[in-house]
Amino acid sequence: MIREKVYKDINNTLDKHSRFESSDFKIEPNKDKSSSYTLLTITYSMEPKYKIIFQIPTSKTSDKEGYSVYYAISGNVCPGPLAYEENFSFKGDTGIFTQITTWLNCIWEELSSNPIVKKVEFQQQQIEEIFERFESIKDEYFSEDEAKELRKKLDKLEETLKEQIKQNQDNKKEFEKQFENLHNDIDTLKQTIHSFKKKGWLKSFTTKVFKWTKDSENRTLLKDGYKVIREFLPEDIKSNIPDLE
Description:
Elements: H1 4-16, E1 25-31, E2 37-44, E3 51-57, E4 61-62, E5 69-70, E6 72-78, E7 86-91, H2 95-133, H3 144-168, H4 172-191, H5 198-213, H6 225-231, H7 235-238
Antiparallel strand pairs: 1-2, 2-3, 3-6, 4-5, 6-7
């Protein structure tokens, strides 16, 4: 079995983290009499899928030359630094505490990222709903008259957003930065009117609108992003765009 000191050091490692307490976790050793290893599992009680499992040997291993001996420890973790589930291995018992700290950081990254990820997923769902409505549009390029009208609408939209940015941004440098990004987006849309067919261009426009409205502090720039999108759609499908609020 694992020494009490190891449990104490594990608890101290958990308590040292700024986001967690040792009481948030369940520590369970499991030693099979027929095995030369003890499985030590640490589970995050609030979200049991987050766990780290150490395979701790009962004896040390020596290198090929026999110059050093060490505990060869392996295991798996969820979440890992890169993948949702990862395997790991290291030499020496002190690596246990480093591995736990890394795991705790990964848990916090998952917890703090979750609302952002869900927001992105919801936004993507909204975009896909609009894309589905574009299927009824003819697979053709904009005419010269249609392109001219779109450019006028884009110019008007740029002026409207520019004024809104000015009202909501006191910092001159930040205003210039935001307006430059907006201008580049608008110019890209203008330049690609004849590069894409109607459906492709409208999809590009849709993603730009959602980009401009993705942050809550920027919602004032466009009160209703989907209404702006509808204004750029052919009259015959405007009424079919779903209410995204």
